Amino acid sequence: MTDNTNIESKFINHNEVVINIEHLKKTFGSYEILKDINLKVYRGETLIILGKSGSGKSVTLQCIVGLMMPDSGKVIVLNEDVPELTDYELQDLRKKIGFIFQSGALYDSMSVRENLEFPLIRHENLTQDEIDNRVMEVLNDVGLEKSIDKMPSELSGGMRKRIGLARTLILKPEIMLYDEPSTGLDPATSREISNLILQMQEKFKVTSVVVTHDINCAKLTADRIIVLKHGVFTAEGSFDELEKSNDDFVRGFFI
Q1: Residues 24, 34: contact at Cβ < 8 Å?
Q2: Contact in structure between 198 and 223 (CB atoms under 8 Å)
Q3: Which of 48, 50, 87, 225 makes the best surface tag, with the fewest CB within 10 Å?
């Protein structure tokens, strides 16, 4: 697979690689899920990863953020060698990386306000006024200012996803990792989430890696798409390029 650096986007800096993966391998018992992953992600781009369920897409994201460690290979994120970091260094790096889980991963016992305050209290030394301002800013970004005092159980699935995104953005990360951001949502709400991904790229110039089965999300958000098959990336290009692929496996995602 070759790097596609001819992407046309005003946000992308092709001179700055923020994620560099070389010969990444990961096994579970006797099953080699990632056989030889090689990937460069550029500052400001939105990269989509397509692949069948269980193919290792989410494992790739977890290796990037250090929730899993590879058996071999390099994972360089923001110039840091992730597998070589101490626990303290890894926590420091994760402040710069937002990870959106499929569930939204909100604390059910906390209100929306408390969910958003939590990472600021844990990671930053701010006054209460500064915390309040940051909370209202991200709620405004996702259009849910009026939900500030609701509990997660009072929110729809789409609202929970948006609050999860707000909680991740509140630390102003440089990289966003999305694991199936539109899973379980109706088409209209899925489009809202896709549009939010685009808005966050524009506002914060954030670099995004999105694992998804939602081909409409890929079409709306992707600067570049890569396809994972049998533990390696087998195809790469724009949405239009891959939609016209001669490879039946690749073209199958676009039907």
Answers
A1: yes
A2: no
A3: 87
**What six digits make up the tokens of 55?**
């193919």
- Contact partners, residue 160, CB within 8 Å, separation at least 6: 103, 104, 106, 152
Query: Mean pLDDT across the stretch 192-203?
Result: 87
3-state secondary structure of 177: strand
Domain ranges of the chain: 1-96+223-255
pLDDT tens, position by position, 159-173: 888 898 888 889 889
What tokens does 96 get? Answer: 């710069």
Fold of 1-96+223-255: Rossmann fold (3.40.50)
Question: CA-CA distance, 93 to 75, in Å (whole number)?
Answer: 13
Count CB-CB contacts under 10 A for residue 154: 12
How far are the Cα atoms of 237, 247, 252, 254 from residue 243, in angstroms, in the given order? 9, 10, 9, 6
